[in-house]
Write a structure and sequence with these properties.
This protein is α/β, with parallel strands linked by helices. The protein has helices at 14-26, 29-36, 40-54, 70-92, 109-126, 179-185, 237-245, 255-263, 295-308; strands at 59-61, 66-68, 101-107, 130-136, 150-155, 163-177, 199-202, 207-212, 223-227, 230-234, 250-254, 268-269, 274-276, 280-288, 316-317. Strands 3, 4, 5, 6, 7, 10, 11, 12, 14 and 15 form a 10-stranded mixed β-sheet that branches. The chain has a 3-stranded antiparallel β-sheet with strand order 9-8-13, with no helix packed on it. The chain has a two-stranded antiparallel sheet with strand order 1-2. α1 (14-26) packs across α4 (70-92) and α2 (29-36) packs across α3.
Length: 318
């Protein structure tokens, strides 16, 4: 039965073990010292220190050859396997210059399709060793329970948490429609005109307040409370955007989802002299606070900020 009270050897440092194994493999103190970048005397002292710690002679030394004793050969056969396993484990850990592995990213459905899809394709081309798993889900997200690495989260304001937040871009809610719809049904001139149009909006956005923008006229329309009677309402922003592009009606969308469509002429802003009260927000990239950010998260964060941020922004607590 093993003696549980057996004292631990005073010195079995990893460097001493490697020096011993290498000297036996090469059959030379000089060759082993050169391979490890040590002086001959330092490597010899490492082996001596190991022998003293174990209380036995591990190698026979001569000017021309180093050979393991019977005890040394048996000891080496066991520790060599351990050293090989340590090397394999170290090789499996990516370095800062070697991002790889599975990256779990979560975002609400509309954001994932409209904003992230083209960017993720470019990211995958740049970092082929990273496999991105995109999870479309509404908030809140439990990073630990769901093994999430990064969240892309739109918010009017972030609640306090232990997450690190990086602002990617700002957006506002806007009323938009396709040129085809406006050609058939006309363009609203006032907030009251919306009552005569087919409306499509996200669930929960039916009640809005329209305010005149600074410098816009007329000032008498400075505030108008409206209840939008939506022909179709859904929690999926991607569906609302596609319905607007198909000429389905006037749609309430965040500009980060439709700016490209407006620039290309596929959608047109209506009542642009009015703004939606409390209708501004930002798109954030969130990850857990950690002393060492894994390479796969670091390069994804930097990539998204490079392609979405107007200018560098300091990170802050969410």
């Amino acid at each position: 039965m093993p003696n549980k009270n057996k004292p631990i050897p005073p010195s079995t440092e990893l460097g001493d073990l490697r020096a011993f194994c290498l000297a036996v493999d090469l059959g030379s103190i000089t060759a082993a010292a050169k391979s490890m970048g040590l002086s001959k005397g330092t490597l010899s002292r490492r082996i001596t220190r190991l022998e003293q710690a174990l209380g036995t002679v591990l190698v026979r030394r001569s000017p021309r050859l180093v050979q393991a004793t019977d005890y040394g050969a048996a000891y080496k056969s066991q520790i060599q396997n351990a050293l090989d396993l340590l090397d394999q484990a170290s090789d499996a850990v990516p370095t800062q210059a070697d991002p790889r592995g599975n990256l779990r990213v979560t975002t609400p459905p509309g954001t994932g399709i409209c904003v992230l899809a083209p960017l993720l394709l470019r990211f995958a081309e740049r970092y082929p060793e990273i496999q991105v798993e995109l999870i479309l889900a509404e908030q809140p997200i439990d990073f630990d329970a769901q093994r999430i690495d990064v969240a892309i989260h739109p918010a009017v304001r972030l609640r306090d948490s232990s997450l690190i937040a990086h602002k990617l871009l700002d957006f506002e809610l806007a009323l938009v429609a396709s040129p085809d719809y406006l050609a058939r049904f006309g363009t609203p001139k006032t907030a009251d005109d919306l009552a005569r149009h087919r409306i499509l909006c996200r669930s929960g956005h039916e009640h809005i307040t329209l305010e005149a923008r600074l410098g816009a006229a007329p000032r008498k329309a400075a505030a108008k409370d409206l209840t939008l009677h939506s022909a179709i309402s859904t929690s999926d922003n991607a569906f609302i955007r596609e319905a607007a592009l198909a000429g389905g009606g006037i749609t309430l969308l965040s500009t980060n989802l439709c700016d490209a469509d407006i620039a290309a002429g596929r959608l047109v802003r209506v009542l642009s002299h009015l703004k939606i009260a409390d209708g501004t927000g930002s798109l954030y990239l969130l990850h857990l606070a950690m002393r060492f950010v894994p390479p796969k998260i670091r390069v994804f964060r930097d990539f998204m900020m490079e392609h979405l941020s107007d200018r560098p922004r300091r990170e802050r607590r969410a």
